Amino acid sequence: MTITRKKLIEVALPLEAINKASAYEKMPGIGPHPRGIHLWWARRPLAAARAVIWSQMVDDPSAYVDELLDDPQTHKAAEKTWQARLKEWRQRKAVYDQALAAGMTGSSNPEPGPEPTLEETAASIERQRLFEILEKLVVWENTTNEEVLQPAREEIWKSWRRACRDNADHPQARELFDPEKLPAFHDPFAGGGALPLE
How far apart are CA 45 and CA 37, in angstroms? Predict the structure, then answer.
């Protein structure tokens, strides 16, 4: 049985940046762009295709939070942020509990949600770092910018190598989980070619 980790696309995406890049791409006259060669009516914006492909190949930080917390520097930063979030949460919880006791809950006194954890905080900080990579990646002018592409590629490789380690005992591990060779990409829909191009 294949072991898989939760991917970034399954948890959250920086939708505002993706939508902005996609809308920009649909504007007329943005320079040398593949859509100038041929108009395909149902073509998806390349920015959206890029975001979907990358975020489905990259692990969500909640899937490797132990790795994050094993790093002393990351652990320290996460703990500092967690303490601040915990303090704020406790204040909101106290206000909510008072409102609940007085029968005054509602939109002005919302429930504070679950208590923040160190693990969730570490994953959240790392997720924000991944969002920053993705926000740069979806900008059309960065399509050939190696300073943007290289960190994105490194994240794909990190996730792939985690998958290879997780599946080292798979009966076909040598064939399917080679840590030095990414698996093939298949686009079942083909369409105007946005996914294969990206």
Answer: 14
